[in-house]
C-alpha cells in the first residue's frame, strides 16, 4: 500500500520527564499498527542521547546553563529527527513519534521547520502531557525511571534525587504549548483534563480520541472462553449450542472465581494469589491467608465490576451464575456486595468469528468438503475469510471500538467470550503482532488475567478445572501453530502448537498443562527496543 504525503503524520511528544510521554506514544503506535495496519515508529531522543553521550549523566547535564549539555542534547534530537525523516520517506509509512521533552518553543519550532523542509508536506501534532501530581510523579519515577540504564547500579535514593533534579532543570525553562505556536495540539493535564486545539483530519482526530481514552489507574481484565459447549464436544465450529454438563460446571466455578478473585479487592494482589497455584486446590495454609486479608482489610470494599458476554448462548450460559441472586454475597464485615454490577452485557462484536458456509462443520469435514479453502486458511490464517463468513482481520476491525472502550474503563472487566475474539484482544494488550494473534493459546477452562502496567501487561492464568474433570472434545484444529517463518519476537511457548480447542488447560508458556497450574507471564509493548526514557 503506497501512501500520499498528506497521509503522513509526525506526533511530537512534549512534557517534563516522567509525565508519561513514552507510555502514551507507545499506546498510540500500538493502536494504529494493530487495529489500523498503520506502520508507526517511535524515535526516542533519550536512546540517541545515551548512544552519543552515555547513559549516566548528572542532572546538571540537563540544565539550560550547561552550554555543552544543551549542544549535545540538540545533537541527539537532530539525530533522532534525521532518522525519523528517513523513516517517513519510506513508501507506506504514515506515522512516527518524536519522543523527547521538547520543552521549549525554540526546540519545537526547530522541529516544525525541519519537517517543513521536506518536500512531502508532513503533518505534525503535538501531544503534551502535564502532570503536577506529586504522588503520580513519584510513582512514575519508581515504577519506570529507576530501572533505566541511566540509573543502573545507583542507590535508589540517589537515583530519585538525581531524577528530580534533572526534572527541576527542565522545569526552569519549560514553555507549555499554546495557541501562539500556530500548531495543532492535544494537552493532557494530570491524565484527565484535555485541551484540544486545531486538530483536523481523520488520522489526527482518531489519535486524539484514542489518547482521551487512556488513563493510568490500575485495572485488570479477565478473559475466559465459554464453558465446553455441545458443539465443542462434537468437534464442530460455530453454531449457537448450549453448554455440556462440564461446561455448566465451569460456569459455576467461574462465578465462584468472579466472587473471590474479581469482586473482592482484598483477595487481589496478595502474594499468595500471585504464585502459581491451582485456584480450587490451594494447599497454602490458612494462616497466611488471614495475614494477607488483614493486610488488605482497608481495601475490602465493594467495587463495581463489568461483565461482557457475546450474544451467543454458550457465553451467556457461562455467565449465568455470576449474576444469579444466590451469589449475593455478604462480606465478613457485614457489608454486602451488589451482584447486579456483574449483570452480563451481551455484545455483538464479541460474537465468535463467523465461519460462513463452514459454520457447524468439523475441521475434518471442512478439509474433505473444501480442500482448497482449508489449504488457504492454513497458509494465511489472519487474512483468510470463510466463504460468506469472516476472517481474523474482519474480527479485528469490529473489535476496535471495544478495545478503545477497554482502554477507557477503570473497573475490573470480565469478558466471557470465544477463542478467536479473545486471541485478538489478548494479542493487542500483550503487544503481539496481529499476524501472531490467530495462533495464541486460549484454552477452555482457564481465566486469563491481564494487568496493564507502564509499557505492557502482566499476565496470570488460572485453571478452574482439574485435568480429570475435563472432557476431551474434538474441536482441535489440525495445525494451528504459527509457521516458524512467520514468528516474530514472541516466546515460542506462547503459541498454540497442538491446537487448543480442547478441554486441556494451558498457560501462556505451556503447551497443555492439563489443569491445576497457573502461569505468570509479562510482556512489554510493541516497541521492544525502546526503554521508555525519552
Ligand atoms: P522521560 O521524559 O524521562 O522519558 P516520560 O514522560 O516518557 O519520561 P514515561 O517513561 O512514559 O515518561 O513514564 C511512564 C509512567 O508514566 C508510567 O508509569 C505511566 O503509567 C505514567 N503515565 C502515563 N500517562 C501519564 C499521564 N498522562 N500523566 C502522568 N503519568 C502518566
Ligand atoms: O528524562 C529526560 C529525557 O528523557 C532524557 O533521557 C533525554 O535525554 C531527554 O529527556 C530528551 O529530551 P530533550 O531532548 O528535550 O532533552
Automatic annotation (TrEMBL):
Ranges for domain 6-phosphofructo-2-kinase: 6-217
Bias type Basic residues, positions: 265-274
Region entry Disordered, spans: 264-298
Keywords tagged on the record: ATP-binding, Nucleotide-binding
Domain of life: Eukaryota
Database matches in CDD domains: HP_PGM_like
Record field: compositional bias (Gly residues): 505-517
Gene Ontology BP term (one): fructose metabolic process
Protein name per its UniProtKB record: Putative bifunctional fructose-2,6-bisphosphate 2-phosphatase
Amino acid at each position: 500500500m503506497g501512501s500520499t504525503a498528506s497521509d503522513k503524520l509526525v506526533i511530537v511528544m512534549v512534557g517534563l520527564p516522567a509525565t508519561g510521554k513514552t507510555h502514551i506514544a507507545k499506546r498510540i503506535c500500538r493502536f494504529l499498527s494493530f487495529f489500523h495496519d498503520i506502520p508507526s515508529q517511535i524515535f526516542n531522543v533519550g536512546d540517541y542521547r545515551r548512544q552519543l553521550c552515555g547513559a549516566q549523566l548528572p542532572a546538571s547535564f540537563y540544565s539550560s546553563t550547561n552550554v555543552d549539555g544543551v549542544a549535545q542534547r540538540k545533537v541527539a534530537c537532530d539525530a533522532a529527527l534525521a532518522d525519523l525523516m528517513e523513516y517517513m520517506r519510506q513508501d507506506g509509512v504514515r506515522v512516527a513519534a518524536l519522543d523527547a521533552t521538547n520543552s521549549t518553543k525554540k526546540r519545537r519550532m526547530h522541529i516544525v521547520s525541519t519537517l517543513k523542509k521536506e518536500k512531502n508536506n508532513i503533518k505534525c501534532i503535538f501531544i503534551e502531557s502535564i502532570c503536577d501530581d506529586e504522588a503520580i510523579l513519584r510513582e512514575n519515577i519508581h515504577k519506570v525511571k529507576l530501572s533505566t540504564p541511566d540509573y543502573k547500579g545507583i542507590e535508589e535514593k540517589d537515583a530519585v534525587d538525581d531524577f528530580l533534579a534533572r526534572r527541576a532543570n527542565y522545569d526552569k525553562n519549560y514553555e507549555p504549548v499554546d495557541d501562539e505556536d500556530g500548531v495543532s495540539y492535544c494537552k493532557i493535564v494530570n491524565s484527565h483534563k484535555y485541551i484540544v486545539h486545531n486538530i483536523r483530519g481523520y488520522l489526527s482526530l482518531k489519535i486524539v480520541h484514542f489518547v482521551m481514552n487512556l488513563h493510568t489507574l490500575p485495572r485488570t481484565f479477565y478473559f475466559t472462553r465459554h464453558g465446553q459447549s455441545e458443539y465443542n464436544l462434537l468437534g464442530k465450529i460455530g453454531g449457537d449450542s448450549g453448554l455440556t454438563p462440564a461446561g455448566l460446571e465451569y460456569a459455576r466455578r467461574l462465578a465462584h472465581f468472579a466472587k473471590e478473585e474479581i469482586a473482592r479487592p482484598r483477595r487481589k494482589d496478595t502474594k499468595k494469589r500471585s504464585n502459581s497455584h491451582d485456584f480450587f486446590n490451594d494447599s497454602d495454609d490458612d494462616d497466611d491467608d488471614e495475614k494477607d486479608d488483614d493486610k488488605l482489610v482497608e481495601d475490602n470494599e465493594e467495587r463495581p465490576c463489568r461483565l461482557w458476554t457475546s450474544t451467543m448462548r454458550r457465553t451467556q450460559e457461562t455467565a449465568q451464575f455470576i449474576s444469579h441472586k444466590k451469589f449475593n454475597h455478604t462480606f465478613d464485615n457485614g457489608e454486602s456486595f451488589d451482584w447486579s454490577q456483574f449483570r452480563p452485557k451481551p455484545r455483538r462484536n464479541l460474537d465468535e468469528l463467523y465461519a460462513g458456509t463452514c459454520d457447524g462443520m468439523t475441521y475434518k469435514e471442512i478439509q474433505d468438503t473444501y480442500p482448497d479453502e482449508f489449504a488457504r486458511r492454513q497458509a494465511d490464517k489472519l487474512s483468510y475469510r470463510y466463504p460468506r463468513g469472516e476472517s481474523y482481520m474482519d474480527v479485528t476491525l469490529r473489535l476496535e471500538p471495544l478495545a478503545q472502550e477497554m482502554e477507557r474503563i477503570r473497573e475490573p472487566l470480565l469478558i466471557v467470550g470465544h477463542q478467536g475474539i479473545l486471541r485478538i484482544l489478548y494479542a493487542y494488550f500483550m503487544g503481539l503482532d496481529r499476524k501472531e494473534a490467530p495462533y495464541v493459546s486460549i484454552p477452555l477452562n482457564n481465566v486469563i488475567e491481564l494487568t496493564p502496567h507502564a509499557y505492557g501487561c502482566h499476565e496470570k492464568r488460572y485453571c478452574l478445572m482439574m485435568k480429570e474433570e475435563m472432557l476431551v472434545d474434538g474441536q482441535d484444529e489440525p495445525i494451528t501453530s504459527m509457521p516458524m517463518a512467520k514468528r516474530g519476537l514472541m516466546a515460542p511457548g506462547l503459541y498454540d502448537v497442538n491446537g487448543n480447542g480442547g478441554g486441556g488447560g494451558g498457560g501462556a508458556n505451556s503447551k497443555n498443562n492439563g489443569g491445576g497450574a497457573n502461569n505468570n507471564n509479562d510482556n512489554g509493548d510493541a516497541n521492544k527496543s525502546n526503554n521508555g526514557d525519552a
